[in-house]
């Protein structure tokens, strides 16, 4: 417009340029407005998938773990600080972000920024010294944030030596921290009575998710997995476990689902009625039809 008012182009040239701009604007893709109900269903489905991934993680091969991670993240969605040797940010897929944010922000170590999750700077380790070789020195004392992280990792079942290697300190330092905090280092499954152990095994045998049983008895899920394996309890592999909703459906409810779908009720409506995701419902229907 300034070019026209200063007399550099004619009114006809101005009209032609405006027409071209309008045409280009018209061809731009409109931003997608996601249905809130659909977004909620996708988040629930992502949460169910995350639970199955977590249960299978320790049994998965390196290639399977890689595929699981990339199924959660966008391309370039893992940001690694080479100077600190630590992951400082994640950029998950849109349907996974709400679930990961809920879990990671609860640790107080991560915070959401726009479409990503960032490790709080209090938990960033110091930059590695890249200067010439030095004489061996005593590792620096752990900060308060690093101590919190160490305690969390130990309670999740990580060995003291692995925690020490991860935080760049000595085994003795971590052992002193554990002793000061009064953490019981016995395998968590050994703290249960014989009756509790049998009850936990019975729940696993009935198809209750590993992590749900571990949470119920306040034990580490990996210790429980190893105990179940020693006792001959076969856990279903990742992708074949029933979701909590599928486990609670009675045979009458399963029959009602098939009847509703056979009468023409939409998959979305039936899934909403029984409080489950469409993906879980479709998988259940396929299994029920396969049994007949």
Detail the topology: elements first, then pairings:
Elements: H1 2-5, H2 11-27, H3 36-56, H4 62-72, E1 73-81, E2 86-92, H5 97-105, E3 110-113, E4 116-119, H6 144-155, H7 160-167, H8 171-181, H9 194-205, H10 210-217, H11 221-230, H12 244-248, H13 251-262, H14 267-273, H15 278-290
Antiparallel strand pairs: 1-2, 2-4, 3-4
What does this structure look like?
β3 (110-113) and β4 form a beta hairpin. α6 (144-155) packs antiparallel against α7, α9 (194-205) packs antiparallel against α10 (210-217) and α14 packs across α15. The chain contains 15 helices and four strands. The longest helix has 21 residues, at 36-56. The chain has helices at 2-5, 11-27, 36-56, 62-72, 97-105, 144-155, 160-167, 171-181, 194-205, 210-217, 221-230, 244-248, 251-262, 267-273, 278-290, and strands at residues 73-81, 86-92, 110-113, 116-119. It has five domains: 1-30, no CATH class; 36-123, no CATH class; 144-181; 188-230; 244-290. The chain is of the alpha+beta class and 292 residues long. It has a four-stranded antiparallel sheet with strand order 1-2-4-3. The chain starts with a helix and ends with a helix. Mean pLDDT is 77; it is low at 1-6. Helix content is 55%, strand content 8%.
Labels describing this entry:
292 residues, 55% helix, 4-stranded antiparallel beta sheet, alpha+beta, 15 helices, 4 strands, single chain, 5 domains
Strands, total number: 4
The Cα radius of gyration reads 27 Å
Query: How many structural domains does the protein architecture include?
Result: 5
Arithmetic mean of pLDDT: 77
Q: N-to-C SSE series?
A: HHHHEEHEEHHHHHHHHHH
In spatial order, strands of the major sheet run 1-2-4-3
Helix amount: 40-55%
% residues in beta strands = 5-15%
Distance between the termini: 72 Å
